[in-house]
Each structure stands twice: as structure tokens, then as C-alpha cells.
Design goal:
127 residues, Ribose 5-phosphate Isomerase B, Chain: A, five-stranded parallel beta sheet, 5 strands
């Protein structure tokens, strides 16, 4: 699967680890930034990820920020995007099954890296 991924400074470290996980799982991903922990504005990364999924250049998107609220609100401004904030595996599965979510938004400040990896795996493998 082709996955678009992006994060702000709060999600940078998780993004780097999730990109490695995607590769291990056999997915192709494109990193839309940010590329450091230096403070940035989350819409600068949420819009490009959402646009890429909206244009069907990528099948799914992953966005990570501190609370996931900002990136979810930004992504959901795009027609055809259904971004869901997921902080448990069950929420990730339900977002795909019941809402046909195509962008998962992970709150880096509220989940462990291990849980973020499980959320992503569940999101990718549900439907």
C-alpha cells in the first residue's frame, strides 16, 4: 500500500519510527515532513498529506502531532478526507470499519511509541 505520512515537531520522532514500521510491513511511504524537532506549524504538513490522499496519489494517510486535534481538523477540511483521531487499537479499527477513515491521526503526547505502532498496524489491516 502507498501511505502518505506527516507530522509536526511534537510528532517528529514517532513519524520517523512509523516510517520504519511501514517499510518493515512492506508498504511504500512518502514523508511529507517535518524533518526535525524544531517548532513548526502543523497545517504545513497536514495539508500536503491530505491533498495527496484526496488526489488518490496515496491510499491512506498518517498524521502525528501532540494531541492529533490540529492535524485532524486540518485534514478534514479536504473533501473526501475522513481523518480520525485514534489513541487505541479499537478506535483505529472502528474508524476504518464504520467511518471508512482514510487518514489516521495519532496523538504523540498521549500514547507510547509501542501503542502508536499498534494503532497504525490496526488501521492498515482493518476492512
Amino acid at each position: 500500500m502507498k501511505i502518505a505520512i506527516g507530522a509536526d515537531h511534537a510528532g517528529f520522532e514517532y513519524k520517523e519510527l512509523l516510517i520504519k514500521q511501514l517499510s518493515k510491513l512492506g508498504h511504500v511511504s512518502k514523508d511529507f515532513g517535518t524533518y526535525s524537532v524544531e517548532s513548526v506549524d502543523y497545517p504545513d504538513f497536514a495539508h500536503p498529506v491530505a491533498s495527496a490522499v484526496e488526489k488518490k496519489e496515496f491510499e491512506l494517510g498518517v498524521l502525528i502531532c501532540g494531541s492529533a486535534n490540529g492535524v485532524a481538523i486540518t485534514a478534514n477540511k479536504h473533501q473526501g478526507i475522513r481523518a480520525a483521531i485514534c489513541w487505541t487499537e479499537e478506535l483505529a479499527a472502528l474508524a476504518r470499519q464504520h467511518n471508512n477513515a482514510n487518514v489516521v491521526c495519532i496523538p504523540a503526547r498521549f500514547v507510547s511509541v509501542d501503542l502508536a505502532e499498534k494503532i497504525l498496524a490496526k488501521f492498515l489491516n482493518t476492512l
